[in-house]
Protein 1
Amino acid sequence: MVGAIVEHAGERSAIRARKGVLLAAGGFEGNDELRQRFGVPGVTRDTMGPWGNLGKAHEAGMAIGADTDLMDQAWWSPGLIHPDGRAAFALWFTGGIFVNQAGARFVNESAPYDRLGREIIEHTDGGSVSLPFWMIYDDSEGVVPPIKASNVPMVETEKYVEAGLWHTADTLEELAAEIGVPGDALAATVARFNEQAAAGVDADFGRGDEAYDRAFSNGASPLAPIVKGPFHAAAFGISDLGTKGGLRTDTVGRVLTEAGTPIPGLYAAGNTMAAPSGTTYPGGGNPIGASVLFSHLAALYQASR
């Protein structure tokens, strides 16, 4: 017999199971202590995961000898910073470039969001990018950043301005002064980007070279020139969709010890297990897919016993 002791409304109950216990309780992105312990960049405020994802299932598994993997990893994305301080998952950019504290581009802004987030973290760890970094864009779509999927609804423009998150100026040099980057460098960065936009080729970072880069521009080049004043800047940070580290399992979801032997009756799936995809993000819905697939495989295995 296997099972679990659970608590609800202050009462503890023992639940017995004939076949096994499957842990599919999400990640630990809502637990700052665990994030710090395992070195996960970012803070709970900036995650898109449910507030209740505290890693309790992870801790229960580790307490009985479960091995773990990828515990410093998450499903990353750039995050538009909102007036409440939260950097929230944002994608579908129809314009703009990202610049660092030196006023220089440092990444393909149209890359898949997890890859983009990883590159941002790599640059911040290396010191070439400090937070916040900035999206620079022109007035083609107005003062609101050219983001079609902010995922957390934007509030009134004046609140971003009052919080120092959105800036506007008549010239790039004046805009640079407002966000604390060198004016001549920012102007040169935009000039080079505009030249590449006219040519349709981003020789610096390959923006538009892959099919995903053009997913939100109906196949057209995502290189939108920055030419129409006034010019704008919006503050960005790093966000995540949840952690991806967890209990190490085999191909049917059995939780393994450090020696690689299964813990009898214990299974894991989804973000409670160490992601089968490792440090990559094959595509949108991958965490949900892993939860569905490995829950199914675990149930089939248990039923066959």
Note: DSSP finds seven helices and 15 strands in the chain.
Protein 2
Amino acid sequence: MGFKCGIVGLPNVGKSTLFNALTQTANAQAANYPFCTIEPNVGDVAVPEPRLDKIAAIAESAQKIPARMNFVDIAGLVRGASKGEGLGNQFLANIRETDAILYVLRCFDDDDITHVDGKIDPLADLDTVQTELMLADLESLEKRRPALEKKSKQNDKDAKLTLELVDRAIVVLSDGKPARYAEIDAEEEKAWRMLQLLTAKKVMYVCNVDEGSSADGNAYSAKVFSHAQAEGSEAVIISAQIESELALLDGEERDEYLEAIGLSEPGLNRLIRAGYSLLGLQTYFTAGPKESRAWTFQNGWAAPRCAGVIHTDFEKGFIRAETISYDDYVTLGGEQPAKEAGKARQEGKDYIVKDGDIMLFKFNV
């Protein structure tokens, strides 16, 4: 299980610069004109995880494999994208496949970099992009209604439920709010996700600031954070320019550079933590001489489902999970000392896996 995030925003807000930095590639052309990204760029990045380094060292693993995060860089949307303006339609489809939407908002002044609306206002930019996604959702829902109405009249239970959800979403969207504001019961969640609404996805706001504001932000980013807090979303401050420079440095040089500008870590680390928090993701580990590995799972998952992250057979034939907490594993010095100290637990199907657990699954297929 990974975290797939669609990066959206107006042209010239720093999306492709950020994407290049995060993925440490130059596949997305960063240029000072709209639509320089003419195909969605996809990149995988390793999730920074200091605990994996310690586990691998204790287990004397030949290899350590981090969890991965997936970014999709989508061309700059403009007003009218939902109606096909610019390169709108072909990119809106790519957003539907993501777990969350990352809005990159311009929070810096620079006369050399043009703004499509001629002014710097991150919340206005957000409103423009979000409105286009809402309009696209409305169009999608209205196209579905006739067929759903017909099936509902024929007493199709699934169609009736879907139609009810469609109408509920239309009411919210028509009121000028994203679909995620609709009240959905737990038993409706699956059918709701099947609608694949762009504005039903969780969102994160990335305030792209100038280098001097990278540590504490500025007046622009303060407005974004206030907005995010009011709606219960995540926001992070990143200087795409700094991140692009960090991507070119090795470990020691990167640490020295971060210290010089007053930062303790790259913006990527903050972004990933915010993404994990947004989606309720956590990490468990497997460890041994061959490899130590980090695995991503949803908070609240029981052991069999977490085993299925490795392979579906592990979930189907789950017997039990030998479990050691991260603190016990590190403090005691590994699997065998933990067993000798009585800290290796045998957990069954009802065990709710905790962040940092070191797991060994027993299964039979």
Note: The radius of gyration is 23 Å.
Protein 3
Amino acid sequence: MFENIKIKFKEKADPNQAYMLKKYMRGQFEFYGLHSPIRRNCYHDFLKQEKRKKEIDWQLLNEAWQDKYRESQYFVCDYLIAMQKYLTYDDMPKIEQFVRSKQWWDTIDSLIKPIGKLGLRDEKVNTLMLKWSQDSDLWVRRVAIEHQLLRKDKMNSELLKQILINNLDSNEFFINKAIGWALRDYSKTNPNWVKNFIEQNKDHLASLSIKEGSKYL
């Protein structure tokens, strides 16, 4: 089935755009050169069919993830977002394989969405994210930091606090940026909490995290 999607990708391929995207991603991935609306249109009808099945096709996702073109990994992310209500905690090891391979901010910042939604349904995800927040892999830690984005009043602030504390004094740009985003996002709902957290931990927060986190304060 994924071959049919690849055929559509190839039909819409834009070599000039592919070159620019590869350059933007520091040469790490090959691209067909598809803008998001065009890419998603290639599998829009397919995802509608999958939703009716109410069952996740992990063999399909693994096949797509192994493909060398980055749009194929984007398809996996979009699939999981579309099918997120059918995910269970037992699926986390399968998602973790995607988190730990072909890593860059683009797929990581998409995979947080189905993980975050699952966390609202199953508290075991909280324990796992706390564990991930201390992982040696910075991208795994970034997932833990960001997975509660956009939760607003559903934010587990105690979990957020502990995850952020586990990542203080970091020299990693992508960690410090994620901390800032998490604080900035939550500041729209609970500015006093964010203000207090920054004040209490200002000596251990990167200036980037403080700048991003304070944007709406």
Note: Residues 66 and 73 are 8 Å apart (CA to CA).
